[in-house]
Amino acid sequence: MASSSSSGLTFKLHPLVIVNISDHYTRVKSQMHPPLTATNGSDGVDNTSSSPSSSSSSPSRSPPPRVYGCVIGIQRGRTVEIFNSFELLYDPSTHSLDRAFLEKKQELYKKVFPHFYILGWYSTGSDAQESDMHIHKALMDINESPVYVLLNPSINHAQKDLPVTIFESELHVIDGIPQLIFVRASYTIETVEAERISVDHVAHLKPSDGGSAATQLAAHLTGTHSAIKMLNSRIRVLHHYLLSMQKGDIPCENSLLRQVSSLLRRLPAIESGKFQDDFLMEYNDTLLITYLAMFTNCSSSMNELVDKFNTAYDRHSRRGGRTAFF
Amino acid sequence: MDSVQALITQIQGLSSSAGDVSRLHSNLKQAEETIFSESARLFSALDQLDPSIHSLGYLYILEACSSGPLTKERAAALVLPISRFINACAVEQIRLAPEKFISVCKRFKDQVMLLEAPMRGVAPLLTAIRKLQTSSEHLTPLHPEFLLLCLLAKCYKTGLSVLHDDISEVDQPRDLFLYCYYGGMICIGQKRFSKALELLHNVVTAPMSTMNAIAVEAYKKYILVSLIHHGQFSTSLPKYTSSVAQRNLKNFCQPYIELANSYGTGKITELQTYVQTNKEKFESDNNLGLVEQVLASMYKRNIQRLTQTYLTLSLEDIANTVQLSSAKEAEMHVLQMIQDGEIYATINQKDGMVRFLEDPEQYKTCEMIEHIDSAIQRIMALSNKLTGMDEQISCDPLYLGKVGRERQKLEYEDYDGVPQKFNI
């Protein structure tokens, strides 16, 4: 469906829209998930227990839900800037979005942001589909050329850029019939100061599988680690070279040998027992502190998990947290 | 004869590739009634089948043969084929019908117990567990059966090898309770009290919606082992215990709690009189052996307390303070404790003085580095798993529903968005 657009419009997308769409999708998805107690026995078990190994079917993998909504913003000349979005209900019988609600919302937004217009609509999925054109055409009476913002909710760790695509509609002649098809458009991300704070906050939420180094400390340590790794590999190369020189596979190169020996003489000269003792003791101390830090971290996450478990599954638990003040 | 032969040829024919095996599986499911009715004749036809190739068919036939009332002759006839089958069967075929495999193994355990030879069942059940487990962290219903046989056959070491694995997937809650309870008993038998304490702790704090007899028995042993190992016992259970257990466990174990109280006073004679008066109660719970160990550990506790007050002490004085009968006995006790690593001391034989030392560990060695390093790695793996579970439960609709209801009662300051790391 998508060559690149030739309309010459520049699109600017605000992070607020992306966060809104993602939030909408997550909410709908977590609310439609079948509850865990339906597949368990009568007691909740503290270890997560999925269905028994092979015999019964896997818990229902219904296709991920699609969410729909409207995007609003400003169009100035050739620049389209998408500022905000709101949710809409999709009526599967008429294959269209809830029109009355859309108009009501539009009216309300006009009162607060008089310059914002409805620029188009959004949805989730991996690629634009044929049925989307129907919705697109329905919006054409509000905006002559609406945009379609598509968010791909499946997480792909290999992908570096955002899973957001902006589609425009263009009239192309296919098989002699003029048809509207979706074409991709490029976009840039534009931020306001307030948005930068929330994006920063979201970026610091560490994913559970470790992910990339998000904090400064982790970045610093990664740098040190790669430096040491490189040093190690270089020393290994030298060592291998010297060994083969010793065995006689390679002719002796005296200048290289001189360089190696001068390097060795510059290494730290301390080899005494006391140095080893102190060094190992300090090393052990650092390791112990790391261990203590990990322990504290682990205990605190365990504590949170236990609290959540008690809230969810224990009928008469004392709420181990804050109770209502009067 | 026809249907039997047809079945046998079908099994022989359809056991080669994965697609064939699944077809065979569906055929066998449909033919279940024929298998049941013709079980005797199928049993005699079993030698036409090879358990390692035709595992699925063999399994169905065995299951049909082993169901029904259990008598000694049937047990004797079935034990050998079943153990040979367990050793030879193919893992992928077994995993297609795990309930049948589990029921065959449970019957096997019943037969072995009926024949009063639990030792014969230990090795086959161990192989069965390894074959049925999808990963080493998976607890199958066969685990508690295996541990029960180990207990009856007194092969504690084999039981210990299974107990080393960490568990994170459980099929049935009852399996977890029984597994930890039997595991705790095995560890007590091997005198590994810290591991026993951990396992019994798991039984007591596992989620349960109603009182559980296994948990009550485990709690009694838990009190005793905690006295032996730590020298103290507190009745407060951690907050992840279910509220049912927190309220009711104490009522069922009153004599043990009083034992713990009199242990706490530190007087041997009081403890001894208490044990004497309540002897039948302890005996009826089969805990008398443990109670005697508790008595013995009292001496150890008192000697350890002496290390905190004195630097050197004569053996006579030790005997008097700890209320042992003679200096010789005190020397034996101290020697045993030094060997077990419970105290650090040197005994001067000439003048009968004991000098208490500090822990000689200086934390300067490379072995200590490796030890701490491996501990850090384990904690990192555990931490990752915990974060995964935390995320999973945060999305659980049951949890979200309850939190949503509670939220309205919280005050404004609580909406600060910072996760509450330290709930008071």
UniProtKB/TrEMBL annotation, chain A:
SMART domains: JAB_MPN
GO biological process: COP9 signalosome assembly; protein deneddylation
Region Disordered, annotated ranges: 32-66
GO MF: metallopeptidase activity
Gene3D superfamilies hit by this protein: Cytidine Deaminase, domain 2 (3.40.140.10)
Gene Ontology, cellular component aspect: COP9 signalosome; cytoplasm
Domain of life: Eukaryota
Domain MPN per the UniProt entry, residue ranges: 45-173
Family to which this protein belongs: Belongs to the peptidase M67A family. CSN6 subfamily.
Name recorded for this polypeptide: COP9 signalosome complex subunit 6
Organism the protein comes from: Ziziphus jujuba
Automatic annotation (TrEMBL), chain B:
Keywords: Cytoplasm, Nucleus, Signalosome
PROSITE patterns: PCI
GO biological process per UniProt: ubiquitin-dependent protein catabolic process
Residue ranges annotated for the PCI domain, each copy included: 192-361
Repeat is among the record's keywords: no
Pfam families according to UniProt: COP9_hel_rpt, PCI
Keyword Nucleus: yes
Superkingdom, natural source: Eukaryota
Cellular-component GO terms for this entry: COP9 signalosome; cytoplasm
Broad class of where this protein is predominantly found: cytoplasm
PANTHER family in the record: 26S PROTEASOME NON-ATPASE REGULATORY SUBUNIT 3/COP9 SIGNALOSOME COMPLEX SUBUNIT 3, COP9 SIGNALOSOME COMPLEX SUBUNIT 3
Family per record: Belongs to the CSN3 family.
Name of the protein in its database record: COP9 signalosome complex subunit 3
